[in-house]
Design goal:
- This protein is mostly helical.
- It has a single domain, classed as Orthogonal Bundle (Arc Repressor Mutant, subunit A), CATH 1.10.10.10.
- The protein is built from six helices and two strands, in the order ααααββαα.
- A two-stranded antiparallel sheet has the order 1-2.
- A hairpin with a 7-residue loop joins strand 1 and strand 2.
């Protein structure tokens, strides 16, 4: 799934890292670059580079905080929101196509096995 997702992002000229940052920035709705770095588990310098790249493409913008003029927030532009929507639809379609190869009973069995792996034992 990860390979298919990375391949589908090529259509928009994004790396998985950039796409994750864009999605996270959208979820944060105006968080600081340092907050974004923490959520992505990357160095603040790396987050700055990612935001720079997204900003150059018009997908995000830096906005000064009204409460603290020293603080700069990352906000996703309308173009960025549209791109995230396209990416999400593409990812959903790719996942659906992959799982459609399995019968209904095989899909249920896979769900059961995955739940067994991720749910804590009691």
């Amino acid at each position: 799934m990860r390979r298919a997702w990375a391949h589908s992002l090529e259509e928009w000229g994004l790396s998985p890292h950039h796409a994750m940052a864009l999605r996270q920035a959208m979820a944060d709705d105006g968080g600081r670059v340092s907050d974004l770095a923490g959520r992505l588990r990357i160095a603040p310098r790396s987050a700055t580079e990612v935001v720079d790249s997204l900003e150059e493409r018009g997908l995000v913008e830096r906005v000064r905080s009204a409460e603290d003029r020293r603080a700069v927030h990352v906000q996703v532009t309308a173009a960025g929101r549209d791109l995230v929507a396209h990416i999400e639809r593409s990812r959903d379609e790719a996942q659906r196509a992959m799982f459609e190869r399995l019968s209904t009973s095989e899909q249920e069995e896979l769900r059961r096995m995955l739940r067994a792996l991720i749910e804590p034992e009691i």
